[in-house]
## 1
Amino acid sequence: MKLVFPNRLALSAMAGICNAEFASKHPVGFAVLGGFNADRTAMKAAIEAVQRGRKEFIFKDPIDGIEEELKKLREMQFPGVVGVNTRSATLEGYTKVAELCRDYGAVIEINAHCRQPEFLSIGCGQELLFKAERLAEIVSACSKICPVSVKIRGGLGIDYISLAKLLKDSGACIIHVDAMIPGGGNDLQLVRKLSAIMFTVGNNSVVDYGSAVRMAEVSHLVSAARAVLKNENFFHSVLKGELARSVELVLE
Ligand SMILES: Cc1cc2nc3c(=O)[nH]c(=O)nc-3n(C[C@H](O)[C@H](O)[C@H](O)COP(=O)(O)O)c2cc1C
């Protein structure tokens, strides 16, 4: 089995923003929906985050809500690969989303990235980067069901190379790296090193064609989030040259 990305651009997850309707407007090879909350505990955390002004997807039934979005994107015949950025307090939440991803030909993206206190306190998001065994357990369970991406955050002073090797050995096929440098800029060397280990989506501070090409030199796919909020035609404007090439990921 393989994943075929029609081009090297990716829409990075934005909670409360990246639903099927939003994603369908962008000519990307990989559209990551969410972040979604897969169980009641994560949904409760999202409601708390909304109460202090953050955007989140709030669904009455977390799994039904995610399935609705996958169904919509399928009906719109979205041509790229679809990812589902997921937070959950329980292993069962992740595996239920993995089952949906299997049914809709999508990739689950384990969110080891968010740093809102509501999610950290229930062991979600970036907290998983400091609990590598737990993260490996989640990846291992999900990879038996569907392809797995792991979204990580750079700049935390952890051993990213050992982490990537562990995630790969646990069954992840993609590492989506927000290569942020605290204080500003992105760490292209970190992305380069991770690309030598596994398939990468390079992320952070991709804002125009030049920065996208620089990221593409060290990664397999290139993702953006904030640039799309500033300019809804962002991906149209950079879809050319090397970035317009299709890429295949053969699954082991
Ligand atoms: C409004 C907003 C919401 C976000 N929500 C999520 C999320 O739910 N899950 C996630 O993994 N990253 C989330 N991110 C992070 C982005 O996907 C991305 O990693 C980050 O913004 C850096 O990339 P950029 O420089 O292209 O914006 C969010 C970013 C923004 C601006």
Note: The chain has eleven helices and ten strands.
## 2
Amino acid sequence: MTRSGVRTTVKVRIKAEVITTRKRRRLEQITGRDTRIIKQYLKVTYHNEEQIVTKKKGKKKVSKAKLDHLTLITYKKSKLPKRPTVRHDLKKSFPRCSQNELQECRDNAVAIYHSQQANNSAPVKDPPLKKIPRTQLAHSKRFILTCSPSNSIARWWVGIRDSLDTKKNRTHKHEKLWLPLACSPYHEHSLHQGKIQALEVLYYPKKKEWWVHFILLHVPDKYFSSRPPAVLGIDLGINKRAVSALLTPKGAINRHEIRFWSDKTRKKLQKKKERKIAKLQKILAKTGLSVNKRNDLFHQLKSLRKRQRTEHKLTDHTYTNKLVKYILSVGKRYDLYVVVGFPIHIRKSHYRGNLHPHSRKSIHKWNYRRVTELLKFKLSLHGWEEYRILSIGESWTSSCCSRCGSYHTTRPNQPTFICHTCGYNLNADLNGAKNIAKRLIKYVLQPKYTSIKDQVSGKFFPLSSFRVFPVLSQWLQTKQSHLLTPGAGVRT
Ligand SMILES: [Zn+2]
């Protein structure tokens, strides 16, 4: 989330089956030319790194102005100092491309260079035949999106500037390449959610389809509530997807607001797929298979795993949507802060030979980070600021009693939790969720703390963001004094 808003992408297919051959050829020409220009820009950048790239705090940054000095001549009319010749004259090698389009390609190339540097990946001198899309910006009126309800071919059309008919020496008014879009009501709804900022035209060679990606900017109204403050603690789990408990200003967990989030039908389907994969792996482990048979099995395994991955993603989306709906409904009644437990170093402790292989397998497959990120993103679309959805370390929350703060506890099996000091007996995940909610207040009240770290994004939020908590702290000091005794609650 940026300061100005949230960016999302809406993907719409172009109805390529109804456009004329000429239009399709033009589309291929434009995208192919853009790819070549972007590659050329990348080549120039890599060849002249010493001249163009500056290093700041260990990060390499390309100076766009210096790159222009190497690639673009300036017109006679412009007020800029004249540059009649440059070393790599792109206008000369691509005469049918306008200045604006060249600059859009330059921005794309610079972005690609930065991402390659950030990932430490080797420079791709000759990338495969895949087309690189150019980002066309809306503010310079590069494209138009229109709706024509009476049109029988398509309801929505996008007009892209077709600059291929540029004449070299005289100005020419460019025609627009009008492309019909396969817009469903879902697309229409999401296109209305934000302001269109940019567009990319892509070709998917596997599907043999053309797609348009619209980049939207959402500027939602800020979430603000003058109601009493409350904290919603969420404990993510493997068997139960999540447990949530609401800590209200009365000083206790609201008994009517305890929720268990799980989906059994999906789990059954996933288990079925896992069994299939295991079966294939067993066959592959055998010796004496022919090469063709082996390749065929590998192909099957690959597609199965891919399907499994997408299914996992879909499941995460469906149940975070449910959670978001619930959080928004609670947010209307309270000035709500959401805390999600984050198991730090859980994968490090479950190494080979340490614990049971079965639990290790399930923990390494557990996607707690993606769920938290999705939750943050979906709530940010509703104007929730980042500090309202925090993820903090959940170590010791499962073994501490949420009523008395004692560590003299046992878990005879996975779901049950028993405290031997006060005799409290409840669901272990619920106990964790309660502790997580209380931990945020505990952090805010710690005298030595000045900020709280978000474990997912790694950002620090000053305690002044949690201005409402002095109100909550009053009852904590009176009613639940054990939280403030040293050693209890926080142990990391
Ligand atoms: Zn207890």
Note: The chain is about 40% helix and 20% strand.
